[in-house]
Amino acid sequence: MSNHDFTGPMVDEDFNPMSAEFADDPFAAFGKAREECPVRHTAEFSPEFYSLTRFSDIFAALNDAEAARWSARYGSSPQFHRAIGFNQDAEDSRDFRALFRTWLPANAGVVYADLIDSTINDLIDEMTADDRVQGDFASEFAVLLPIRIIAQLIGVPPEDALEIKEMTDEFLGAFCIPEQNGVAPAARRLHAYFEPHLERRRELLRGASIEVPDETHLGTVLPNDLLSFMLVKKYGDRTLTPSEIDYVLATALTGGNDTTTSMLTNVTYRLLSTPSLWDRIVEDGKLIQPAIEESLRMDPPVLGLFRTTADDVTVSGCPIPEKSKVMLLFGSANRDPQQWEDPDEFRLDRPMKFLRRHLAFGGGAHFCLGAPLARAEGNRALELLRTRLPHLRLDGESERIPQFHLWGRQTLPVRWDAPHLDSEGA
């Protein structure tokens, strides 16, 4: 235990979760921080920010229901942005989230089951075409599954999936830029892509002489997708503003795309790295859900997001000034030994009721709206992979993704037996 007196956050030049060096082994740094001083102050980034590392402190911040101490109104990035959409506090955020529950319901996995399964089967067909027996699981499956699904739900051509992926990566990469308007160029590119698709829907409404559209026009005059939904949905007594529409689209892409890709690569890498674990999944499909949740706990796709202190606060004896950016390190909370037995071990025997307390999807009023869809994609992917490619295995070294606050795999070389051989051996 350090002799740090906990009267203030430790200023640690080596503790910068936004740096490339930190990403080499963040979990070792998290463990050291939890033990020595659970609140860290990073002055090497602009703006300076603080970090929370213990599960109990992060859980309390996430569940500050009325944002009396921990506000989301300045955004979840290290920069300060004005409140909009889901990043509002308390009642305003709840009202905005409620708008999209009909589009992305809690049972999204059931509602979109056919789309999920058909997309997964198409990808496996493409991977195994022409008797191929090896490929890159990351680029040929994990990247394409969520982006094809979210592209269809949003209402853009599936052939644009890779362009959308590229724009999303640019947007997420700007998250780490130490400048106030670092995301502006990426945001403008997203707007320029989506605006023609929105305008085509407005033309459909004008062509039908509809001045005040509503939800009855979805699937009749307009395609039944997110772009159309945002043109007809009322927020209180008004329609959504252009800024709100841009914000929702950026959130849908980052939350329903890159993070799901990372979840898929992380769980697959964990299972294939220890072949006996993959064998257990192949033998018993009931272990798929625990595997997904344990992967989310050990390897959360987002290592942390930010809140802003609404007042002077004290955390674990350490004072943090008002209006400070504070990074809630989910990756550290999920390996806190005060919360988890054997926190650095990947185990399939943890009780599900307890396991799902992990913070990979955040928590409280801002719990990830797309979590049900992401979980469904992960569960169905493993189910169909274990039945169609039961002899899946690693085939070389894997590389991490470059974004520093995210945790996933950029490459994941794999090999499998020819499908007809797999079906005979399964």
Rg over C-alpha atoms, rounded to the nearest angstrom: 22 Å
Strand adjacency order, main sheet:
1-2-3-11-8-4
The largest β sheet comes out as: 6 strands, mixed
Provide the β-strand percentage band. Answer: 5-15%
Question: How do the strands and helices of this protein lay out in sequence?
Answer:
Layout: E1 10-11, H1 26-36, E2 39-42, E3 49-52, H2 55-62, E4 70-71, H3 90-99, H4 108-111, H5 113-128, E5 134-136, H6 137-142, H7 144-154, H8 161-174, H9 184-207, H10 226-232, E6 234-235, E7 238-239, H11 242-273, H12 275-283, H13 288-298, E8 305-309, E9 313-315, E10 318-320, E11 325-328, H14 330-333, H15 352-355, H16 371-388, E12 393-394, E13 399-400, E14 409-411, E15 413-415, H17 419-425
Parallel strand pairs: 1-2, 3-11
Antiparallel strand pairs: 2-3, 4-8, 5-15, 6-7, 8-11, 9-10, 12-15, 13-14
